[in-house]
Amino acid sequence: WTAEVPDSVSGLEGSCIVIPCSFNYPEPKIKPSEFTGIWFKDTSEVIYHPDSSNVITDYRGRTELVGNLRQKNCSLRIDPLHSSDKGPFTFRIEIKDYNKASYKYDRVSIAVRDSPDPLSLSVMEVVKVGEEVSASCSVSHSCPSDPPLITWSHSGTPSIQSQQQTKGQWEETSTLTFRSSNADNNQPLVCTAAYRGGKRVKSSKTLTVKCKWPKYLIHPHVVTKGHVMSVYIILRQYSFGCSTTCSVKIKLFIILIPDPPEIKVDSACTSDISMVTCLCIVDSEPPSTVEWSLPAGHLPSTRVEMHGSVTMVSLQRALGFSETVHCHASNTQGNATLSFTVSTNGKGNSWGSVSLMN
Predict the structure, then answer these.
(1) Does the keyword Disulfide bond apply (predicted)?
(2) Which domain holds residue 160?
(3) Whole-model pTM?
(4) Which one of 113, 141, 168 terminates a domain?
């Protein structure tokens, strides 16, 4: 006849506690049909009995046998735990038509705490903007049926895991996953564990969030203050700019590389009842000189507009001046020509050529 209980367990006042207990006995020839488990305080006061009328007033309604006696498990729950529940406590088993035993030498005491155990908060405190952050917060407790509720000061995706420890203790762990942003820099990440009865415990760590340049845009992807970076853009049709996820001021200096004229495909001639209107759009650096011509000679432009490297030149003439009109563009880097066939009903066809200066 043996029993196994820890020498002592600890729990938070107002929460619950489970005293782990197992027992053994010589197996009888006939399988027992009925078991009665009894718990005592100081070997004489009954704190648990299947017949609650046998239980002393202070423990009546607060104790429950959570172990299965047929499986030799005699674990006891006390809920809620009072400051006076120090013990020592012992277990007794009565087996109908067989035998009974009091395990008075296997005693367990309870250390009742008036404040929760401290939290264990783990997180990488220095991260980069946009990185996935995983933080874990763990707390030890003694009440598996009603564990502390763990919450976070930061939004994200939390997950909970409970794991049994030794001497009646359990560990509750909450893991929070989120993506860092610049708003998280120098901000505390707070983990809070709330127990039944209103007791709380907190732990926090301050995050440092560093700037991050996306690798697929430029290299190096991490830039420090005072660093000069050069970005080379070869084709002028590429759009470009400069941005950062950090709350710092940046300067963008744009140096335009010389380019030969490029007459855009939007260039065209259209006609209505009495008028032909032609538009020639040229992109180049430096801006081009643009002229119109007929097979017989040059034509003056009706209107010229300049928009940075883009030159827009229009021509309006009465119908019948020619079936073909040419747009010539030139700068120090080369020249280009686009020819239009003028139709009396709608938009004409176009073809062209480009030559570069050596």
Answers:
(1) yes
(2) 120-210
(3) 0.58
(4) 113
User: pLDDT tens, 61-81?
Assistant: 999 999 999 999 999 999 999
Please state, in angstroms and as integers, the Cα–Cα distance from residue 166 to each residue in 72, 141, 163, 225, 226, following that order.
19, 11, 10, 52, 56
* Cα distance from N-terminal residue to C-terminal residue, the chain: 106
Contacting residues for 208 by C-beta, under 8 A, at least 6 apart: 125, 126, 127, 185, 186
Using one digit for the tens of pLDDT, what is the confidence trace for 284-321?
A: 988 999 999 887 788 888 899 988 889 999 988 876 65
Lowest mean pLDDT among 105-109, 141-145, 225-229, 267-271: 225-229
Average confidence score pLDDT of the chain: 85
- Per the structure block, which two tokens stand in for 290? 């643009």
**CATH code for the domain of 179:** 2.60.40.10
Residue 311 lies in a domain: yes
Chain centre distance of CA 228: 32
Query: What does the alpha-carbon distance between residue 283 and residue 140 come to, in Å, rounded to a whole number?
Result: 70
The SS3 of residue 69 is helix
